Amino acid sequence: MEPLINYITLSAILFGIGVYGLVSKRNALRLIFSVEIIINAAILNLVTFSTYSQPPTVSGQTFALFAIAVAAAEVAVGLAIIMVAFRLRSEIDVLDLKKLKG
Amino acid sequence: MVDIAFLALAAFTVATSLIALEAKEIVYGAVALGLSFLGIAGFFILLNSPFLAAFQILIYVGAIAVLIIFTVMLVRREVWLKLAEDKGRIVGIFGGFTIVAIILIFTISSQMAFQFPPKEQISFTVIGTILIKDYWFALEILALLLTASVLGALTLAKLEKEG
Question: Domain containing B46: what range?
Answer without folding.
Answer: 2-162
